[in-house]
Amino acid sequence: MTSALLAVADLTKDYGTGRRALDAVSFQIHTPQLVGVIGSSGAGKSTLIRCINRLVEPTSGSVKLHDAEITSLRRNDLRAMRRQIGMIFQEYNLVERLTVMQNVLSGRLGYVGLWTSLRYRYPPEDIQAAYALLDRVGLSGFENRRADALSGGQRQRVGIARALMQRPKLLLLDEPTASLDPNTSRQIMELVSNVIHEEQMPAIINIHDVGLAKACCDRIIGMRDGRKVFDGPSSALTNQRLAEVYGSFEAFTEQQAEPVEAAQ
């Protein structure tokens, strides 16, 4: 068997309060695919995503990206490794006063010097790549618009383009559709799925909407109380397996019915 694109082994996170947010979670990704992570609030979904790129420091365990161990890297090496991991957030994390183009080009900050980034004098090839990415995510012609003038769905598309500007080997998405309306959420998920298959990279997405996860994800990991309780193709996520993830099928249906404020 070929080596994994991403290998997570016995990943554990304990907090000082005595709470164990992750309990020896292990999985591997061998092919470019979109992996959805589902579970109730507090199940460990966001902690898992953030421990992979060490935005949260794991207590123990191993994370390897293309056989490079992430968990033992020192600060400078970790900074270099994070260039290879694109991160997309629920709250967009754009610089509101900057233009769409400036936000997208900020995905190259790890590769250009500070003076270049402050003066936005990026190499011509980076600027060309940014235009191509804006076209790819459906924002051609938006390059000079300020980020704070965009809708929620448009902001998330900028976030995707910015992450792709890093030319990453792995894409991590932390509830990117949580504040979007259902139609926009599906568009964003379909965009992410298309991009990661075209780029031949793995992606892991925390997602609240199980129906959307089943429709767009190749594989689903179910989390409960910090443990992995399901890992398989979307088609295998039966009502019985959902009950195991959420405690009961009634708990699952109640959580899915919770209203979500939509960003138009």
Automatic annotation (TrEMBL):
<dbReference type="Pfam" id="PF00005">
    <property type="entry name" value="ABC_tran"/>
</dbReference>
<dbReference type="InterPro" id="IPR003439">
    <property type="entry name" value="ABC_transporter-like_ATP-bd"/>
</dbReference>
<protein>
    <submittedName>
        <fullName>Phosphonate ABC transporter ATP-binding protein</fullName>
    </submittedName>
</protein>
<dbReference type="InterPro" id="IPR017871">
    <property type="entry name" value="ABC_transporter-like_CS"/>
</dbReference>
<dbReference type="InterPro" id="IPR012693">
    <property type="entry name" value="ABC_transpr_PhnC"/>
</dbReference>
<dbReference type="InterPro" id="IPR027417">
    <property type="entry name" value="P-loop_NTPase"/>
</dbReference>
<dbReference type="InterPro" id="IPR050086">
    <property type="entry name" value="MetN_ABC_transporter-like"/>
</dbReference>
<keyword id="KW-0614">Plasmid</keyword>
<keyword id="KW-0067">ATP-binding</keyword>
<keyword id="KW-0813">Transport</keyword>
<keyword id="KW-0547">Nucleotide-binding</keyword>
<dbReference type="GO" id="GO:0005524">
    <property type="term" value="F:ATP binding"/>
</dbReference>
<keyword id="KW-1003">Cell membrane</keyword>
<dbReference type="InterPro" id="IPR003593">
    <property type="entry name" value="AAA+_ATPase"/>
</dbReference>
<keyword id="KW-1278">Translocase</keyword>
<feature type="domain" description="ABC transporter">
    <location>
        <begin position="6"/>
        <end position="250"/>
    </location>
</feature>
<keyword id="KW-0472">Membrane</keyword>
